[in-house]
Design a protein that fits this description.
By secondary structure, the chain is mainly alpha-helical. It has seven helices and five strands, in the order H-H-H-H-H-E-H-E-E-E-H-E. Among the domains are: 6-52, no CATH class; 63-96, no CATH class; 99-159 and 194-218, no CATH class. 36% of the residues lie in helices and 9% in strands.
């Protein structure tokens, strides 16, 4: 018996009845009171559910979507198959998001893609290095420029799963016309829903006014775990590309 269930409510109802009116075993009375107990249990469950929805930390289901719409309009939406726990974390992170700073831009894109983000500023000596200070050809530092103030070059990586799963592609032995994992696809089949435009919009929402951001979006890391498909013995090259 759990607090608020039908049996608990039935016991509560019987507890307020005079003990001398009914015997210890009263199936007819129990059947009658069970109807009221069932309704009371439903009301109790509804109250507990409504209580959860009053805070983002405990809200569930569509109430999380309503909270996101209340704070962000249509800018932040639940992705396909995104759980309540994941979407709640997205909302909480976005509400307290650091803005208009380089670390803020970097973290916003990293949170979106779940991949490392690098930022380079040609006007920033901490990025470019200098003679005798963190600089060696093809090893450390980079060429800077005084003609590119307030400019960031951002390299983001597409998240894993941002595509159409369970299909193959051209030049793959797993696909063919009318056979295999092959079909004419459109954007409705994309899972993950983190598009290049989402990355651009995140940068735009996080950057400071007057700062120019150039964004390079790299493909996700290659998963070379399928022997004979991603890695072919005697043919594929060992090591990272």
């Amino acid at each position: 018996m759990a607090t608020g269930d039908t049996n608990n409510m039935l016991a509560r109802l019987k507890a307020v009845l005079p003990a001398r009116w009914f015997p210890d075993t009263s199936p007819i009375l129990d059947a009658l009171l069970s109807g009221f107990a069932s309704a009371a249990s439903w009301v109790y469950g509804l109250i507990q559910y409504a209580k959860l929805q009053t805070r983002i930390a405990t809200a569930t289901d569509g109430f999380l979507d309503l909270a996101a719409y209340d704070f962000f309009g249509r800018r932040i939406k639940r992705r396909k198959s995104q759980t309540d726990i994941s979407f709640r974390r997205t909302i909480q992170d976005e509400v307290l998001r650091e803005r208009v700073t380089r670390p803020g831009v970097q973290k916003a894109v990293a949170d979106l893609t779940d991949n490392k983000v690098t930022i380079f500023e040609a006007f920033n000596p901490h990025d470019t290095g200098g003679w005798g200070v963190m600089f060696a050809f093809n090893m450390a530092g980079a060429w800077g420029s005084n003609t590119l103030p307030y400019t960031m070059f951002i390299t983001a990586v597409q998240p894993q799963g941002a595509g159409i799963p369970n299909i193959s592609g051209f030049n793959s032995p797993q696909s063919g016309w009318g056979a295999g994992m092959f079909y004419l696809a459109d954007l409705s089949g994309v899972t993950g829903e983190v598009t290049n435009q989402d990355i651009y919009d995140t940068v735009e929402a996080s950057r400071a006014a007057g700062v120019t951001c150039w964004v390079n979006i790299a493909p996700p890391p290659r998963n070379a775990s399928r022997l004979g498909v991603d890695f072919i013995l005697g043919s594929s090259v060992l090591g990272s590309p």
